[in-house]
Amino acid sequence: MFAYLIKRLIYAIPIALSVTVVSFVLVYLAPGDPLNAIAPADAPEEVIVALKSAYGLDKPVPVQYGLWLMRAVQGDLGTSIASGRAVTAEVLSAVSNTLLLAGMAALGGVLVGCVLGALAGYRHGTWIDRVATVISVIGVSIPHYWLGLVLTILFSIWLPWFPAMGAGPGGSSEWLWDAEHLRHLVLPALTLSVIPMGIITRTVRALVADMLEQEFVTALRARGLSGIAIFRHIAKNTAPTVLAVAGLQIGYLMGGSILVETVFAWPGTGFLLNTAIFQRDIPLLQGTILVLCMFFVVLNLLVDILQPLIDPRMGRS
Amino acid sequence: MSAPLVSLQDLSVQFCGHRKASALNAVNIELGAGEVLGLLGESGSGKSVTLRTLLRLHPERTTKIQGKMQVDGQDVLALKGRALDLYRGGTVSMVFQEPGLAFDPVYTIGQQITEAIRAHEAVGEAAARAQALHMLERVQIPQARRRFDAYPHELSGGMRQRAMIALALACKPKLLLADEPTTALDATVQIQVLLLLRELQRETGMSVIFVTHDIGAAVEVADRIAVMYAGRIVEQAAVGDIVRAPRHPYTVGLLAATVGAEHRGQPLQAVPGAPPDLAALPPGCSFAPRCTHASERCRREVPPLTSLGNRAVACWHPVQPVAEAA
């Protein structure tokens, strides 16, 4: 088990390094110059040159990458061109907001998905199964920015139950655990939870329906185990796959919330990315992408470590 | 005489999926305590269906069961809820054909036996574990203590089948159902598992219904053999009588199709044709289309199982036994 852990950790290093290269270089593929955003269009040549050297943009790209990586390892992701604030601080504050939103959405989506999927799998081919399938297909295929807008119209405008924008009263981005802040969380979290809910429902339904056909489940019934005891067996058998799918979904939620965060003006990483793109704020963009990618790497690592703890067929050999 | 342990009366099972299939047709079986019955027949003859019906393992929604089924004084078809759970594994338990598929892959052998014991007996975890370990020792698993904590995939096929037997016997059932318990095993392991089953049967005095298409295996363990064809019992007698003097043409064909040293060098006799479609059984004897003795009557009327001396045969024209030396 310990050797397996070390191996997984070592595997994660080259993946993390390639992620830094990609997130650094990707930005240079986009047309346009960051200086266009801050320097006036008719700025004299010497001002441009001075700005370029100030931001280190006059050096060759590999050197820029090396310097950026060195500082990134030390936790310094540079300075935002647009706001002049430290990228690390901006990203971390956005990350905590996104984590909160994604965490709530994932929790809700995975819980509802597991319940719906298990019901559909157990009642395979009945109307319950069909209803769950329809819900999950809608969940997977509905554009969630559209759903966000519809929910806003329904529950903020027609029925003024929940606020439509921001993470707190007065557009503050500081999170507090109180009723007012939680009310801000409801609509974006609900919107965001629909996709993982759909995917988890489909996964669990397929797994459970398949599991019930297996000889070992018949054998469990032949042993006289109660329905609840058999359900425990099925849950433990499906858990590794559900965990892997849920891990990926949470990863997507971390970055995939650009549209939803923009719709609800939620001060998270998606909102930050959106701002950085439109302002051509390259250090901010690179820093945000890097942090998001690292989340994926860490999540996959966690899932890889958790799976063999549940499924004895993995890891022991 | 006291009531038999198992009594099936005119038991019929119909599967109503996309097509209706009559898997069992008015089967009658009686089995006394301590008796070993071998169910013999080719694939699809209803052997496994009989066993699974005895444990009510078929999906309720798509299965129609008619007739009477009594085991140990209980009306099995009327059992519900907790009573059914206690009956399954407690009164009657089952050894499956593929031990590799019949264990839950993510629990250890020991956990699964312990769980089964605790589902039937009011004992604590520690006592149940000790009992489970003792069962593994009884089925002669070497290093039982280590195997106790092994996962099913970590054992060999033979060890898994021994563990399966330990699990099946853990709650001291009165009837053991063995569904081709040796088919999935290597030839050398087959005989060991057969001998183990026979030994445990004698030790515990339980009754056994043993399903197989291997006549050799049936002779090895059974007291009595029932030959099944297309969901019906076509001949039933003591092992010796069946093997020495089969009366039903199908039994004759089955015995002739056995590979044995005495037939070395001769071409293997096969029963011509294939078993009938269970969704469209012929109106008369289901074996008639493949039978060399078949007459007009065979194609029209189903022959009832009638007793003929010390046996029961369902045939209008039973084969005359080879004249015994007078």
Strand and helix order of chain A: HHHHHHHHHHHHH
Head-to-tail CA distance between termini of chain B: 34 Å
The protein's oligomeric status is heterodimer
CATH level-4 homologous superfamily of the domain at 33-57 and 87-261 in chain B = P-loop containing nucleotide triphosphate hydrolases
- Model regions low in confidence, pLDDT < 50 over at least 5 residues of chain B: none
Number of strands of chain B: 12
Radius of gyration of chain B: 21 Å
The total of helices of chain B stands at 12
What is the average per-residue confidence, as pLDDT of chain A, rounded to a whole number? 84
End-to-end gap of chain A: 10 Å
Instruction: Give me the number of helical elements of chain A.
Output: 13
CATH class designation of the domain at 33-57 and 87-261 in chain B: Alpha Beta
Largest interface: A-B, 21 and 31 residues
Fraction in helix of chain A? over 70%
Spatial strand arrangement across the major sheet of chain B: 6-7-8-3-9-10-12-11
Order of helices and strands of chain B: EEEHEEHEHHHHHEHEHEEHHHEE
**CATH class descriptor of the domain at 94-310 in chain A:** Mainly Alpha
Helix/strand-derived category of chain B reads alpha/beta
What's the overall geometry of chain B? globular
What's the short version?
Chain A has 317 residues and is mainly alpha-helical.
Q: Could you characterize what this model shows?
A:
The complex is a heterodimer of chains A (317) and B (326). Chain A is mainly alpha-helical and 317 residues long. Chain A has a domain at 94-310: MetI-like (MetI-like fold, Orthogonal Bundle). Chain A has 13 helices and no strands. The radius of gyration of chain A is 24 Å and the shape is globular. Chain A starts with a helix and ends in a 7-residue tail after the last helix. With 326 residues, chain B is an alpha/beta fold. Chain B has a domain at 33-57 and 87-261: Rossmann fold (3-Layer(aba) Sandwich), CATH 3.40.50.300. Chain B is 34% helix and 22% strand. In chain B, strands 6-7-8-3-9-10-12-11 form an eight-stranded mixed β-sheet, with helices on both faces. A four-stranded antiparallel β-sheet of chain B has the order 2-1-4-5, with helices on one face. In chain B, strand 11 and strand 12 form a beta hairpin. The radius of gyration of chain B is 21 Å and the shape is globular.
